[in-house]
Structure formats: C-alpha cells, structure tokens
Amino acid sequence: MILSMPLATNPYDIHIGKNLMAQLKMLIKKVYEGSKIYVITDQTVFNYHQEYLLKRLVDFEVEVVVVAPGETSKSFEVFEQVVDELIEKGIKRGHLILAFGGGVIGDLAGFVSATLYRGIDYIQIPTSLLAMVDASIGGKTGINTNKGKNLVGSFYQPKMVIIDTLLLRTLDKIEYQNGMAEVIKSAFIGDASLANQLLVSPVSEDEMIKRTIEVKRRYVLLDEFDRKERMYLNFGHTFGHAIERKSNYHIKHGFAVAVGMVIACDVGIKLGITSQETKEKLVALLKKYGLDKTVVNPNNYINEVFFDKKNINDILNMIFITDIGCPMISQIKKEDFNGCFN
Ligand SMILES: NC(=O)c1ccc[n+]([C@@H]2O[C@H](COP(=O)([O-])OP(=O)(O)OC[C@H]3O[C@@H](n4cnc5c(N)ncnc54)[C@H](O)[C@@H]3O)[C@@H](O)[C@H]2O)c1
Ligand SMILES: O=C(O)C(=O)C[C@@H](O)[C@H](O)[C@H](O)COP(=O)(O)O
Ligand SMILES: [Zn+2]
C-alpha cells in the first residue's frame, strides 16, 4: 500500500543560506536524477542572474523560458505562452521545472507545474525578499483573472525551496520594502517578539527571513489547504488584493497589504476586537519601513472585497489581530463596515 504523505506530516526541504547556488547541483540531484531542466524566470531576474544560475546547471540539459517582469505575467495569456513554449522545447512529465524569480514567477511557474500534464515536479528558487519569506513557501500557486487576484490556481508543493540570500544584493529598495510588508504581517500574526524587535532595533536579515518563514511554515503545516489557521497568513489581504487589482497592479502586493492591515485594524477597533495600541504599533512599524505612503479610501473597495475567496455565501471571513501576535478570524457582513471609515 502506498502511503500518501500530505505536507502536514511530511514537510518538504527548505534550504536557507548564502551562495546555495554553489550547491544547486547537489541539491537538485537529491530530488532529481533526470536529464532535462526547464527554468522559468522573468527578464529582469534573468538579466541579473543568468550566469550565476546556468553555470551551476552545466551537468544538466537546460531550457529557459523568460516572461516579462511584474504582476501582469500572472495571467491566462502568459500561462498559455509558457505552457506552449515548454511543450515546444520538449518537456516531459519526468522533467523538472525551476521557478527562478519573485512571487509572480513562483505563482506562475508553480501553476504551470501543477497543471501541465497534470503535474511536473518543481523547485522554488525565490529571488525577491517577498518570495523568500512568503511566496515560495506553502504551495499556493496561481494566476489572476480580470475578475480578481489569484482566482485560478492550485495547492501544489515544490519538491524543495532553495533560498540564497545573496540573490537579494540586486533587489532594489522599493522591492525590499515590498517584501518587508509580508515580514511585518507574519510578525503581527505569529511572532510578537520579532515585531517588537523590528520596532526598536535592526534584526539581521538572515534571522528576519528565517523567523518569518517559520511563522508561515507553522501555519501551513497546521492547515495546508487554507481552511482555518492558514487563513491568518491572509491578514491585510482582504482589502489588500482589492487595492492591488483596482490599481491595475500599479500598487505592489506588499504596499497594498500594508494598507489592508491598517484597514483591518480600523475595522477591528470598531468591532471591539483590536486595541488602539496594536494599530499604533503596526502603523509605526510600517512607517519605519516606508510602507505608509499608499493612501486609499476604504469605502471605494467594499464591494470589491466580497469577491475575495474567503467570502462564503456573502459572509466574509476576515482576519484581525486582537494584539501583536494574536490573530483571529471573524465573519463580516457588508453592514459591519458601516461607520468604520469616517
Ligand atoms: N503563493 C504565495 O503564497 C504568495 C505569497 C505572497 C505573495 N504572492 C504573490 O507574489 C507576488 C509578489 O511577489 P514579488 O513582489 O516578488 O513580485 P515579482 O515576482 O513581480 O518581483 C518583483 C520585481 O522584482 C524583480 N526581482 C525579483 N528578484 C530580483 C532580484 N534578485 N534582483 C532584482 N530584481 C528582482 C522582478 O523582476 C520584479 O520586477 C504577487 O503576485 C503575490 O500575489 C504569493
Ligand atoms: O500562503 C498563504 O496562505 C497566504 O495567504 C500568503 C499571502 O501572503 C499570499 O499573498 C497568498 O497568495 C494569498 O492567498 P490567497 O488565497 O488570498 O490568494
Ligand atoms: Zn501576500
């Protein structure tokens, strides 16, 4: 009898370090002895790091598929382009896909891996801070549709996650701040001491990344398919996704989630769930990392948020924090927002 081991009992490999690319051949051979590897990446990442990656793959037969950078590549159109190009380049079920990029690449390549031939093994090699601390972990894959964010996708775990923090040296300041939003989100839902440390003193990048990943890993191992505890990782995303999409993705994911977290605190305060002090600490930390610049009128998004996947029969499962590190889910109806945003 073959025992299928869901993630919750069989956590996959997460490797974090510097210059892990030097061990890429050894790491890949741990999960894969085949002959052909298909790298999916975006043009910006490939321009910076193609030499760094490809010289570690000389022992393998490698093909590369490059898409345009940015959120617009998480689309049906680009999904079909990538699938067609992989087939034209001879991909087979036993081959291996490498997702080499930020969260957009991780989601797009993960969804291609989940669906092409009904599943091809893949490895996540995140290159943005946001992807290292969040997007590459937990197996959520998918694309956006013209109706909303991440509305088509699949839970499909990578065989391994290789986090080489040296790759961050080329990440620009805005993208680093973008990733800090998910660090702050994770600290506020699952590591109060990290949140308090970030408020008062610098935390080493490696420690910050490791502790942020640990928060996500903990919730994913509890609830891989996002029915309860994993939903805490969606703090700030109810409004965040709506803000991102209505801006045609000009407002980046992390910056939108930052606004979404403050909005969730305002609703939480109105409903007697969140303390004013908790909101003030969140706002102070967001400001410290330059994540307080996006200003929106939440009333403009109330209809949009009910397209969220957490909306069951017009009751919205929304994530709040009662205090730093203490998340909770409350069922919200549209009228609950009345008077929250004066
Ligand atoms: N699946 C999940 O669990 C999960 C979690 C969080 C976010 N996401 C998704 O991730 C996406 C956001 O991720 P992102 O911010 O990484 O977006 P992204 O992939 O678009 O990367 C941001 C920008 O940084 C560039 N970049 C990436 N790595 C670089 C590097 N090392 N040096 C220089 N430039 C680099 C990219 O080319 C891009 O222009 C959103 O679509 C979001 O929905 C998914
Ligand atoms: O992994 C999760 O679960 C998360 O909620 C992580 C989020 O940071 C991430 O943006 C995720 O893609 C949002 O999930 P969705 O189910 O709202 O699409
Ligand atoms: Zn997110």
From TrEMBL:
Domain 3-dehydroquinate synthase C-terminal: 179-311
Pfam families named in the record: DHQ_synthase, DHQS_C
GO CC term (a single one): cytoplasm
Primary localization: cytoplasm
Keyword tags: Amino-acid biosynthesis, Aromatic amino acid biosynthesis, Cobalt, Cytoplasm, Lyase, Metal-binding, NAD, Nucleotide-binding, Zinc
Chain positions recorded as Zn(2+) binding sites: 182, 237, 253
Record-listed E.C. numbers: 4.2.3.4
HAMAP family membership: DHQ_synthase (MF_00110)
Family: Belongs to the sugar phosphate cyclases superfamily. Dehydroquinate synthase family.
Function field: Catalyzes the conversion of 3-deoxy-D-arabino-heptulosonate 7-phosphate (DAHP) to dehydroquinate (DHQ).
The protein, known as: 3-dehydroquinate synthase
Biological classification of the source: Bacteria, Bacillati, Mycoplasmatota, Mollicutes, Acholeplasmatales
Gene: aroB
